[in-house]
Amino acid sequence: MATAMRKEFLKAKKVTHPNSRKSIAIAKRTRKITNRQKAKINGLIKQNLVGEKMLWIKEHMIPNICPYTPELTARLLETYITRHDEEMEQIVIKRSISYKRNKQHASREDVLRMTREREQEEYDTCGIEIPDILNPIQCEMLRNWNGELRYMTNFKFRRFGKKHLNEALKKANKKSKENKDIQTKVSKKPQNSEEVKFEEKIENSLNKSIDSSENKQSIECIMEIE
Question: Which InterPro entries match (predicted)?
Answer without folding.
Answer: Tma16, Tma16_sf
